[in-house]
Amino acid sequence: MSISNNGNLKLAIQKKGRLTEKSIELIKLCGIDIDNYSERLVVQAYNFPLEILFLRDDDIPEYVQDGVADIGIVGENVVVSKNAQTEIVEKLGFGKCSLMMAAPENITIKTIKDIEGKTIATSFPRVVQNYLNENKINAKIIEISGSVEIAPALGVADMICDIVSTGNTLMMNKLKKSISIFESQAVLIRSANKPLNQAKQEYLDKLLRRMRSVLTAKNSRYLMMNCPKSSLEKIEKVLPSIKSPTILPLADENLVAVHAVIPADYLWKIVDSLKSLGATGILLSPIENMIP
Ligand code: ATP
Ligand code: MG
């Protein structure tokens, strides 16, 4: 199948890499059915006017800029480093990582000033240069496309600036993390200067509504518990005030069931208060979709 001009919205995602699985998961959680994608360049969705293009992540910003794809999912670090004419429509909350300065033990980098005069190896020269300019620091940048972390050991650079999520690779190469210069996550981008036709804009709006409801649901949990009627007022005060909770009668007249949607990490902040107010049978479950 080749890239067609059938009026469908075209979404570019990474063909094979760290963002592929999560990108496909997001599309599926939006209720969009797609076929086994692994072998093809383009896949047509069954139940949505959407075509998915599988590309190297480096190529996505430019293809979106030029309108080869209408939208794309790619790391924000790649968007910035490619400097293509695109804009971020939505931050997607996965593929999180930091672009960090790291140096061998014998070089101490405590503040930005310590970078002055150093040689930095990186795959993201543009992002690093922006950072140096913003902080009025002079340093030499050496562009390396892969395995940046071995540059100091080879004597090519004093330090590096690379993507870090766990820090294991740095540790193995005896490098110490210092300053984070950019926090990245996967983002949905569109062209900054090629407006979509009306039909495609409507498809995008529809897709975005679905994506936003998936993202909100991901960050929320459904809390259920039984509470003594006598402490209901206090328990309601402990719950976040996003929406009023659902109160249901129980066979035992002294108790009520309380159901509420809360932020994903919130239970641990309030669990002790809930227990001391007599809440029992506390259940927390994920939410697949949340439509405002
Ligand atoms: P491609 O073959 O598509 O060019 P790649 O090797 O350039 O792939 P990946 O390593 O798959 O890219 O990373 C894709 C994106 O995942 C990165 O640009 C970054 O935004 C994000 N990411 C999250 N965690 C990490 C990590 N630990 N290391 C590298 N990238 C990460
Ligand atoms: Mg790449």
Brief account:
The chain has helices at residues 20-29, 60-65, 76-82, 125-134, 151-154, 168-172, 198-218, 232-238, 267-276; strands spanning 9-14, 42-44, 50-55, 71-75, 86-91, 97-104, 119-122, 140-143, 159-164, 175-184, 186-191, 220-228, 246-249, 255-263, 280-286.
Describe this protein's structure.
It is a single chain. The chain is an alpha/beta fold and 292 residues long. The protein has three domains: 9-94 and 186-217, Periplasmic binding protein-like II (D-Maltodextrin-Binding Protein, domain 2, 3-Layer(aba) Sandwich), CATH 3.40.190.10; 97-184, D-Maltodextrin-Binding Protein, domain 2 (3-Layer(aba) Sandwich), CATH 3.40.190; 220-286, Alpha-Beta Plaits (2-Layer Sandwich), CATH 3.30.70.120. Helices cover 27% and strands 32% of the residues. The protein has helices at residues 20-29, 60-65, 76-82, 125-134, 151-154, 168-172, 198-218, 232-238, 267-276; strands at residues 9-14, 42-44, 50-55, 71-75, 86-91, 97-104, 119-122, 140-143, 159-164, 175-184, 186-191, 220-228, 246-249, 255-263, 280-286. The protein has a six-stranded mixed sheet with strand order 2-3-1-4-11-5. A five-stranded mixed sheet has the order 8-7-9-6-10. The longest helix has 21 residues, at 198-218. The radius of gyration is 24 Å and the shape is flat. Bound molecules: adenosine-5'-triphosphate and magnesium ion. The site of adenosine-5'-triphosphate (ATP) has 15 residues, from helix 3. Residues 14, 17-19, 56-58, 75, 77-78, 95, 97, 163, 165, 184 line the site of adenosine-5'-triphosphate (ATP).
